[in-house]
Amino acid sequence: MTILLSTLNARYAHASLGLRYLLANMGALQEQTRLAEFVIGAKTTDIVERLLAHRPRIIGFGVYIWNVEETTRVVAMLKRVAPQVVLVLGGPEVSFESSEQGIVQLADYLVTGWGDVTFPKLCGEILHGPKPLMKVHVGVQPPMADIKLPYALYTEQDIAHRTLYVEASRGCPFKCEFCLSALDKTAWPFGLDSFLAELEALHARGARLFKFVDRTFNLNIKTSLKIMQFFLDKIAADPADPVYAHFELVPDHLPDALKEGIAKFPPGALQFEIGIQSFNPDVQALVSRRQDNAKAADNIGWLCEHSHAHLHVDLIAGLPGEDIDSFARGFDRLVALKPHEIQFGILKRLRGTPIIRHTEQYKMVFDPYPPYTILSTSLIDFASMQRLVRFARYWDLVANSGRFANTLGQMLGDAPFNNFMAFSDWLYAKTDATHRIALDKLAALVAQWLQARGMSKDAAGALVGSDYAGRVDAPAQKAKPVAVPVRQARHLAA
To answer: Which CATH superfamily groups domain 2-144?
Structure first.
């Protein structure tokens, strides 16, 4: 009576925290439960063959925005070749608006929301009776102390080769309408002592890279300081054995005590993901986002100037009420603060989020297929939105990659958004591509752009060559490698 817990991760390095929570809380059924993780892009027939090799009675799938289309194909094939296998779905993509989804219609059961208690109970009823009568089971949220933590289930292979996702809390007290956390009532912490004991055990097993998926790591400063002190103690014990931690910060909440702790971390040990999303107060009010913009900007500036933390700061284009000029002003303001990465995101309509209430007034048109990206609004037409999409892609290639650190400032000048948009339009006209642009070709194109803007051929080649020793039209100097932490996938916990 094997029970399989399966999902298609965005990439191999992303070990599913949600599946491990389910496995940890299977109780008496844990001994007959197995994990079966895959990666998007794998052949459907290969996945189905490997799943059925376990001879499962039940397969539970974690369904997310990035894997729902491929998981639908897997579920459909399983229903054709092995109709006797009971298929149970869960995860954020199927927890809302489920009645209209093809994958839900194909499956036998659905668990919405928290699955820690409800999924094991459902499996017990499927295996031992009485047979569940309802298809949809609303997840019961247990007391946090009743949830068994899953970190011992990370294998030696996971520790050696994958990002380890951890969380000191679940939920979020804020109500930003573009985020699924807008549906949470608050943030619920796990017991700090037991959580730190789990971190200690992971570290003792060799774990050195930890990604916190908490939405608001710095909500409770006392807790934040204790967790940071855990990492500082490990660094102090052996500075030659580096530890790396990633946290998401509320941008306008950085008291002096937290600054003092952050300032103690050495280079390469700390990354912060900071969601600004918009600097426009009217847009923030529309989407129920509370943010002190001046304080948030001051805090980002302080982190850049007085800490060694790597900063990954988010902006979202396509929010209701924001036109390109407003977004450009926010982008330029953020560039002036000099974070290491600016994640230029395009709004997506996550199922269940309240952003949908603005659809009619702001003529918001979303792609009907995952990841449900905004296509146009009353203030940004489809063609302009596509220009923004290309800008975001090229910004990743040129700016966030860290490969053009010396050249970027020259490209941006005193009008970063407008100048990079001009480069983006030019690059697309030259290549008709946004992907599969070889690095040496990109470097040569950047040099050509600088020449088109009035720089001499030799000067452009030398500037690009100072960043990238490749095939450009002028002699290139060997660039010193730029250490940029790998961007992590967002919030993979179920």
So the answer is: Cobalamin-binding domain (3.40.50.280)
